[in-house]
Amino acid sequence: MFVPRRSLPPLNAVRAFEAAARLGSFKEAASELSVTHGAVSQQIRLLEEWLGAPALFRRSVRRVVLTPAGAALLAEFAPALDRISAAVQQHRERRGDAAVAVLRVNALATFSLRWLLPRMSRFRAEHPDIEVRLSTSNDPVDALPDKFDVVIRGGPDTFHGFSSRFLVSERRLPVCSPSLSAQLPVNEITDLSRHTLLHVTSMPRLWRDWLTEAGHSALEPAASLSFDHFYLTIQAALDGLGVAMGPTALIADDLAAGRLVTPFPDISLPARSYFAYFPAGRSNDPHSAVFCDWLEQQGRKTG
Q1: What is the mean pLDDT of the chain?
Q2: Closest CA to 6 of 153, 135, 141
């Protein structure tokens, strides 16, 4: 299933949600944003209608409490708003500077959130003469309505009018939080029968395929939870809700920081790697080459 181009919620609704979620109060969010309490409520209602079930908050008389779905969104929205604010500040600080090269990049949303954006400040510091303008989409490379200098998708694939190059490899394996592993140790594969397994609805056989690869195809977990995006299953694993099938590229930073652990690092499933695709006439662009060289170098560090 492909996400429509620029399928993004209204920014004002996102800001209202982030403030209310962070402060635990619609009233305090209204004060911070200099709007009325009713305006915050309306914006959050708009966001919940735009997203659909499940709800983002549990309401009480004086406070609001995030649901698990709301907490997962906050974990992604808050850093994204911080990055937007930082980008605006950088833009203002660049006034009067020499012109920079603009590189238009389109990448998968989950890859952008979990891998690319956390590294972009480093790229900017090392290459201040290149301004990366990032947008996200799950559309096929040759179905994008706008033109981009670099498109990052899974691969290897062949698209008419595009060349490609490898960026980041990936495999998939079970991951969980250290606290969950301490409460219910996962020393043997059979220990997974005591745990909740976290699934991605678009890949319903992922866990079953891994258990088959591990020689335990008949194992049944204590419970299962399903989410519609990889980043939600990763966040659920970080929050200790269960054991997820983690894409190695997207969890590299969490593994390095000790926020996630891999109970069975020697058993993994192959996955499509990430590739950069260039439209005809742009494959030799020097700024695209610098950007992709840098991404490949970062990929080797996290592979």
Answers
A1: 87
A2: 135
